[in-house]
Amino acid sequence: MELAIERPLPKPTSADYASASLLEALVETKLAIDFLKRRLTRNAAGKAFQAWKAVLTALLKLELERLKAVAKTEEERRWLEERAVPRVPTSRVVALSQMLREVGYEDVVGATFVALSLHDYQHHSPDSDMALSKFRSREEAAMEIATFLRTVVKYVEKLKGACG
C-alpha cells in the first residue's frame, strides 16, 4: 500500500494541490517535532521552515485569483501562476506573504519572518552575536520552533475546509 505522502504531488492546476500541500505541512511538522524531541534543533528548524513553505503554497493556490487581482503587472500575474504556486521560492516568501496580507491574511507576514529566522538558524547555528542567526542558544531556538509549529497547525486547521 502506497502512502499518500509518497505519491507524486497533483499538478498545480489541480484542486487537490492545496490539500497535498497541507498534508506536506503536517508531515514536515511531525518531523520537526521528532527532531525537537531528539534535541536536533537545526534539523527541526529546517522542517518548520519547510512546513511554512507548504502552508504558503496552499494559500497561494487557494487565493490565486484574488492574488492575481492585486498583482501590479501582467508579468507578475503570470509569474504567480507559473512559478509561485508550483514552488514557493525562498527568495520571494516575503513579497508573496505581503500579497497574501493584501487579500486578508494579516498575520502571514509575521509568521514568514519567524520562518525565515528559523531558516537562518538552521544554516548558521546559535549565534551569540546574533549576526547570522536570531537565536543565541539551542534552547531559544527550540522554544520558538515549538511555538511556530503551533502556528503552522492552526493554519492547516483553518485551511483544510477550503480545500474540500
Give an overview in words.
It comes from Pyrobaculum calidifontis (strain DSM 21063 / JCM 11548 / VA1). It holds the Pfam family PaREP1. This is PaREP1 domain containing protein. The chain is mostly helical and about 160 residues long. The chain has a single domain, classed as Four Helix Bundle (Hemerythrin (Met), subunit A) (Up-down Bundle). It contains seven helices and no strands. The protein has helices at about 15-35, 40-60, 65-70, 75-85, 95-100, 110-125, 140-164. Helix 1 packs antiparallel against helix 2 (about 40-60), helix 2 (about 40-60) packs antiparallel against helix 6 and helix 6 (about 110-125) crosses helix 7. The protein is globular. The mean pLDDT is about 90.
What is the structure about, briefly put?
The protein has 164 residues and is mainly alpha-helical.
